[in-house]
Specification:
Blueprint (H helix, E strand, L loop, with lengths): L2 H22 L3 H14 L10 H19 L2 H6 L1 H27 L3 H11 L4 H8 L6 H31 L4 H32 L3 H20 L4 H16 L5 H35 L3 H36 L8 H9 L5 H8 L8 H29 L5 H22 L6 H22 L3 H29 L5 H18 L2 H8 L1
Length: about 525
């Protein structure tokens, strides 16, 4: 099979595994890791090489944009101490610890060993959030885990770039030092300036196919521009996404947000599939060229790297918890169970794979470094990923019931705000809207109080609305069958009916339909 055929087969397998992971509450990256291993042993799967710059831009830029756009700035401000400790201190400590192992055990040069440390240092949020989205854990732990994944990627890639430059240039000279002194602040300023400059252009294409495409074009162009200017492309993407997100809610349409969310989720998923497929191809060829003695030596080194990565994260998480509790009052303290959960959420994923791809062909012991990176991803995703949900229940941190009650309270507050806004309005239109909002609010109040009358009324309303919408859809099909409208008119009217249905269906039923 050629690469395209292999990718299609793996995508079909990934889709099937995604359904399995949803039903078993297993992170889908864990399934993809095992699929990548399968791709490595299937005969006939070709080897595809990517240029280092292409690998980073292709895999890292969209993933960073997606994560940074969804992460609120206020959360970063609230948990800035924890985020700095985990994203900067944790990544740096892991990179240095792995570098020591690589230098002493495998004889890697110091800079090359630090490159390996930076590759395996950043935990990937995709695996953790795949489980956490189906569970409900303490909000502070959830916020730190999601925010950490964004900032530790940036920290790890900065270390990776600096160490790789030192390795390729033969040392840390004044020119290299000056370059990295300018790269970080310059990248941040470039990202912020780009977000402001493109804000006006975005308003002209909002809600269109061009708007979705522009998001990807902006992302890749910004990455390339930052690289050409010698600035940090990582920080430029993060700054651009967070700046754009902070100012886009009032301008972007509902249609644009729904489309963008669906498109970006699909793209990031496909990139994960491609990364695991490409890594499986590389690993197969690397292992095929090794002798048995070399494999034994490599296995010992890989085990040491995996153990170092896991242990350093436990030390950082538990140590930070103990130090934080010693400095805070009893009311503000967190228990050690939350630290254990955070430590076990240290799965590696897309960033580790992409940075391993980005190593130049003449990198010292490149095959060993690539194998170690894939082994860390595989070990953490399979071992930690498959046991994360049971661990949450074992630690007593499963707060799904409390989370459901909180969601009811949030929906009640939102519904009440809408009803209060039009309370003084008169006329049949206002009365119609008031009745709908009143039904929703009454149902939420009864749900919180354990009654069923309001919920029954809301269920009846939704049943009637869905029956009417079904009749509208059938009428639309009759219009198309009789050739009374063209394709564009049909698609526009169908979209309007679909929006009505989405407005009627509650979130839990909508998720069931999507699944």
């Amino acid at each position: 099979m050629n690469f395209f055929e292999s990718l299609l087969v793996l995508l079909l397998v990934a889709i099937a595994l995604l359904q399995v992971s949803r039903r078993l509450s297993v992170p889908y990256p864990s399934m993809l890791a095992m699929a990548g291993v399968a791709a490595a042993v299937v005969p006939g799967v070709p080897y595809i090489a990517l240029e280092p710059e292409t690998a980073l831009a292709l895999f890292i830029a969209p993933a960073l944009m997606d994560a940074a756009f969804d992460f609120p700035v206020n959360t970063a401000r609230r948990y800035w101490v924890a985020l700095i400790v985990f994203a900067v201190g944790g990544v740096a400590a892991t990179a240095v610890a792995v570098a020591v192992v690589g230098s002493l055990y495998a004889g890697l040069p110091v800079a090359a060993a630090l490159v390996l440390g930076a590759i395996v240092a950043p935990p990937d949020a995709a695996a953790a959030t795949a489980v956490l989205s189906g569970m409900s854990i303490p909000r502070s732990t959830d916020a730190v885990l999601r925010g950490e994944s964004l900032f530790n990627d940036a920290a790890a890639l900065l270390i990776f770039g600096a160490a790789l430059s030192v390795q390729t240039s033969g040392g840390l000279g004044p020119a290299v030092a000056l370059h990295f002194a300018i790269a970080a602040p310059g990248g941040i300023l470039l990202g912020i300036a780009t977000a402001w400059a493109t804000a006006r252009v975005t308003t002209y294409v909002a809600g269109t196919l061009g708007g979705n495409l522009l998001q990807f074009v902006q992302t890749f162009l910004l990455w390339i521009l930052a690289e050409r200017l010698g600035l940090s492309a990582v920080l430029a993407i993060v700054a651009f996404a967070m700046t754009a997100a902070a100012s886009s809610t009032s301008r972007s349409s509902a249609r644009m947000r729904v489309q963008s969310y669906a498109v970006w989720s699909a793209v990031v998923f496909v990139l994960n599939v491609m990364a695991f497929l490409l890594m499986g191809m590389q690993v197969r060829d690397i292992l095929g060229g090794m002798t048995s003695d070399r494999l034994i030596h490599v296995s010992g080194f890989i085990a040491a790297v995996v153990a170092t990565v896991v242990l350093v994260r436990f030390v950082i998480c538990i140590g930070f918890n103990r130090l934080r509790n010693a400095l805070l009052s009893v009311e503000e303290q967190t228990n050690v169970r939350q630290s254990v959960l955070a430590a076990w959420c240290g799965m590696r994923g897309l960033v580790t794979l992409a940075t391993a791809f980005a190593l130049p062909s003449d990198f010292p012991q490149r095959d060993l470094v690539v194998l170690a990176a894939f082994a860390v991803v595989l070990a953490t995703l399979v071992l930690q990923g498959l046991t994360l949900a049971p661990l949450i229940r074992l630690l007593g941190l499963d707060q799904r019931e409390q989370g459901a009650r909180d969601m009811t309270d949030f929906r009640l507050e939102i519904a009440s705000a809408g009803l209060e806004r039009i309370e003084a309005r008169s006329g049949p239109e206002a009365e119609l809207v008031r009745n709908k909002f009143a039904i929703e609010r009454a149902a939420l109040i009864d749900t919180r109080g354990g009654n069923t009358a309001g919920a029954d009324a809301l269920r009846t309303y939704r049943t009637l609305a869905l029956e009417a919408i079904d009749a509208q859809r059938k009428a639309l099909e009759r219009l198309r069958t009789s050739n009374r409208l063209n394709v564009d008119e049909y698609n526009l009217l169908l979209e309007e009916i679909d929006w009505r249905e989405l407005a009627v269906l509650p979130d839990d039923e909508r998720r069931i339909e999507e699944t």
